[in-house]
């Protein structure tokens, strides 16, 4: 069993941090790939698509040789979850299972998909030219339990220094997220969400779970970025689900 991990809005693959290694330790015989979405990280040269479908097409072409061998589980966080869901609908046999972390879709009103209080924080992140301040603001919004972790903040600052995040990328990803329309798919699905998510209303996950007939597990204290706030909890649920 191999894994593809997809990050969310304006986050590089490097923002998975220790989670990738922790997943690898749980599944030592597995491949764990963390591709960047177009416009970010190693794919910063690519134009950020205005649709989730185009993100899927980009990644599918990029990873075609990897996906041709073995079984794969796709794990998508937030915007990455939209890409994962679209991919499962477009290519029903590509993945044996899918895990969506704090996803959202057109099943919810837009103010549930992106809480009104979160949007000004994101916008302020791109007004400032101070990398440290921007990353502190993003971590404060996405994490409830690690938002004062100085080591984590410094690692995110380092990522931002080596791979700039452009305003156009943010706006184009936001447009793609807003236009996303979830389609039903048959790939077995686990949804993990956070009761105290300050970016996406947890009801969004509940509605997707009901629509797909998926299993839903809720963390009571973590923030939007469950891979940072509750990695062991996430890994335990993935382990059980895959098993």
Q: How helix-rich are the residues, as a percent range?
A: 40-55%
Q: What is the name of the CATH class?
A: Alpha Beta
Biggest sheet, spatial arrangement of strands: 2-1-3-4-5-6
CATH-wise, what's the superfamily? Answer: Alpha/Beta hydrolase fold, catalytic domain
Radius of gyration: 16 Å
User: Hey, roughly how much beta strand do the residues contain?
Assistant: 5-15%
CATH fold topology = Rossmann fold
Largest sheet: 6 strands, parallel
Total domains: 1
- The succession of helices and strands, N to C, reads EHEHHEHEHHHHHEHEHH
Supply the number of helical segments: 12
Mean pLDDT: 94
Short précis:
By secondary structure, the protein is α/β, with parallel strands linked by helices. It has helices at 18-26, 52-62, 64-67, 79-90, 110-113, 119-127, 131-142, 150-162, 167-179, 203-212, 226-229, 231-242; strands at residues 2-6, 32-33, 72-77, 97-101, 189-194, 215-219.
């Amino acid at each position: 069993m191999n894994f593809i991990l997809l990050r969310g809005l304006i986050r590089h693959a490097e923002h998975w941090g220790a989670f990738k290694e922790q997943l690898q330790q749980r599944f030592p015989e597995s491949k764990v790939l963390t591709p960047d979405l177009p416009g970010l990280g190693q794919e910063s040269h690519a134009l950020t698509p205005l649709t989730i479908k185009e993100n899927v097409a980009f990644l599918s072409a990029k990873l075609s040789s990897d996906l041709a061998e073995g079984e794969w589980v796709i794990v998508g966080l937030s915007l990455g979850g939209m890409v994962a869901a679209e991919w499962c609908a477009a290519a029903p046999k590509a993945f044996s299972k899918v895990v969506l972390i704090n996803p959202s879709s057109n099943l919810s009103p837009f103010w549930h998909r992106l809480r009104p209080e979160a949007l000004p924080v994101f916008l302020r992140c791109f007004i400032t030219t101070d990398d440290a301040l921007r990353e502190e603001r993003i971590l404060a919004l996405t994490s409830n339990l690690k938002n004062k972790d100085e080591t984590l903040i410094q690692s995110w600052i380092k990522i931002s220094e080596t791979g700039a995040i452009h305003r156009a990328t943010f706006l184009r990803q936001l447009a793609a997220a807003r236009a996303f329309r979830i389609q039903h798919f048959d790939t077995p699905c686990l949804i993990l969400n956070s009761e105290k998510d300050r970016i996406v209303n947890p009801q969004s996950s509940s509605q997707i779970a009901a629509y797909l007939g998926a299993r839903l597990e809720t963390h009571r204290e973590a923030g939007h970025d469950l891979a940072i706030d509750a990695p062991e909890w996430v890994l335990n649920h993935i382990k059980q689900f895959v098993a």
